[in-house]
Design brief:
This protein is 46% helix and 3% strand. By secondary structure, the protein is mostly helical. It is globular, with a radius of gyration of 21 Å.
Length: 269
């Protein structure tokens, strides 16, 4: 009798890059599209492809108790690693954000998150393509986009330009739906991590999955916040504000709100 170990990844960061997009598509399936049992089976098969010669011979009774090893796929979206660091369209390479979307700028976040929320509500493919076009860009020209240069700006992608979104979104529409699903899931998971860092801005603890997201919890417009901040001298005007790292802006808003909260408490206002 021969024994073989079937290895199953235990978190989203451990998912093999070659199966990640398909796993995202399974994860995002609605109940009317696929039952929870079918989703679990397909996820298990996808994550054990190296042992498919064994898995395909399993009976339903043998397979069922093994499905618990993929519960995390549907219960814990903890992805921080970008499994799609680059996509190619018509011979052009488009690069995505770094891990945890750590290099996102404020302008691209404002636009990308608007399309993310819209897609979460409506399922419009145009919003999904716009989201991808916001955060996936070619490498910029010049030393400031070279990681080996002392002038490196911390991001090899060209600067965000919303005037290019329409044409870029048409290009993103050429990507397979699974790739776009993968981009969406990565954004959703990283957004969950980011919002958790700033409780004064995002007071309600985010719960749920990418498919049910926090679209309904977003009670403000990022463009309203941008409008409030662009005249703030500490950001040096609209152009500098737009190109500021997202975390720099959010940390500043968080500090201001916390200061005001403490002052109101201190003076019983």
């Amino acid at each position: 009798m021969h024994k073989r170990e079937i290895r199953v990844p235990d978190c989203w960061n451990s998912v093999p890059a070659d199966v990640y997009p398909e796993l995202c598509s399974i994860y995002l399936k609605k109940e009317f599209e696929m039952s929870d049992y079918d989703k679990a089976v397909r996820a298990f098969v996808l994550l054990t492809l190296e042992s498919y010669d064994i898995v395909e011979k399993l009976t339903a009774e043998e397979l069922y108790p093994m499905l618990g090893t993929v519960d995390w796929v549907f219960s814990k979206l903890d992805l921080t690693q970008n499994h799609l660091p680059k996509v190619e369209i018509d011979g052009v390479d488009f690069f995505g954000p770094l891990e945890e979307m750590d290099n996102l700028r404020f302008a691209e976040w404002c636009v990308a998150d608007t399309h993310f929320v819209n897609y979460s509500k409506s399922g419009s493919q145009q919003d999904l393509q716009q989201l991808a076009a916001c955060i996936y860009r070619p490498i910029g020209d010049g030393v400031e986009f070279s990681p080996t240069s002392s002038y490196y700006r911390g991001d090899q992608r060209e600067k965000f330009n919303d005037q290019l979104l329409k044409s870029r979104a048409h290009l993103m529409a050429k990507l397979p739906k699974a790739i776009l699903d993968g981009i969406y899931v990565f954004y959703a998971s990283c957004k969950h991590q980011i919002t958790g860092m700033y409780p004064e801005i995002f007071p309600a603890k985010q719960k749920g999955s990418a498919s049910s997201s926090d679209a309904g919890d977003q009670q403000f417009s990022w463009f309203d916040i941008y409008d409030d901040l662009r005249g703030d001298p500490k950001f040096g005007g609209p152009d500098k504000l737009e190109d500021e790292f997202l975390h720099t802006v959010l940390a500043s808003i968080e500090r201001t709100r916390l200061t005001m909260k403490n002052l109101k408490k201190q003076h019983k206002l």
